[in-house]
Amino acid sequence: MAYSALTLGCYRANVARGMESPFNRRSRLMTPVVLRAAGACHGDRVCGSQASDCRHPRLAGGHVAPSYQTSVNKKPFVTEVIRSRKGRKSSLGVSPLTPSGERRAGVLVLVRHGESEFNKQDRFTGLKDPPLTTNGVREAIDAGRALQTKGFHCDIAFTSKLKRAQQSLQLILRELHARSVPVFDDAALNERNYGELAGLTRDAARARWGEAQVHQWRRSYDVAPPGGESLAMTAARTLPFFDERVRPLLAVGKRVLIVAHGNSVRSIVMSLDRLTPEQIVNVSFATGTILIYRLDVLGIIVERTEIPVSRHA
Fold it and tell me: Rounded to 5 degrees, what are φ and ψ at 177?
């Protein structure tokens, strides 16, 4: 293994300034953040060199990763910022990852929550917050058992602010023996707002607005019901959240579980599967459905599995 003269120069600069070695592997990984090239060095605290002393690429946010190459194939390694805890203090270091071809790929699991009381009554739910039915509890448990059978190990989980999704997530994590993993809830993953349709049965909505109009509101991409959101409007909040919070984790090989809602899941799937607005009209997911995506280190999907959970009487 050979390091470039540029890397060693930056290493010496760090040591001279009393900084932790960027190649210290003993630090405990706390919060991985992939660094992406974007320009020229600005004397960042991670690199430790001034602009006149270092010609590293500048990375997003000003953090600079040392060049790290093998002496055989010269393929660059990906580098990540790590946080290590020493007593009560936190310090920053840079830990080289294994070559991209050898690093663990990320796994994304999307699950639609179990059946809610409004699902059972065939009502538009939206931002209403009914709990799971007994059947919905079973569906969530079955989803957890199915993932356990698949050998899924969860590193971090996300869900919405609505109780049907949160309850489903906790039941799934219990089956995975993973209730201690970090869990984050965010309104970006909420179900689409159905506006005036929320709380109405589908029959009542059809009687008021007509079957064709209600179908268009339910399945179209960019037509919103009165006072509500279209799927496009839902995607405008789910996709930025996904890109900012989830993709970086997948890029460093994390196994991410998201338990959300029919339309928030549809909007993410539309992006992942590269579906057109015309194609997404015919896509829907029953409660308890599981989608598993395996991605390579470049973020390209290499495997997609859909698991419909068994229905209970």
Answer: 55, 45
Which region holds residue 126: left if phi is over 0, alpha if psi is between -120 and 50, else beta? left
Residues 95 and 82: beta-carbon distance below 8 Å: yes
What is the residue-wise DSSP string for 167-188? HHHHHHHHHTT-TTS-EEE-GG
Spatial separation of the C-alpha atoms in residues 30 and 129, rounded to whole Å = 34
Please state the pTM of the whole predicted model.
0.69
Domain boundary among 49, 69, 96: 96
CATH code for the domain of 237? 3.40.50.1240
Segment 91-148, tens digit of pLDDT? 333 333 444 445 678 999 999 999 999 999 999 999 999 999 999 999 999 999 999 9
The pLDDT tens digits for 176-225 are 999 899 999 999 999 999 999 999 999 999 999 999 999 999 888 999 99
Q: Which two tokens stand for residue 55?
A: 């010609």
Residues 168 and 285 grouped into a single domain = yes
Among 57, 73, 96, where does a domain finish?
96
Dihedral angle sign, alpha carbons of residues 190, 195, 200, 203: negative
Are residues 80 and 151 part of one domain? no
DSSP state of 132: B
Enzyme catalytic residues: 113, 191
Tell me the residue range of the domain where 82 lies. 5-96
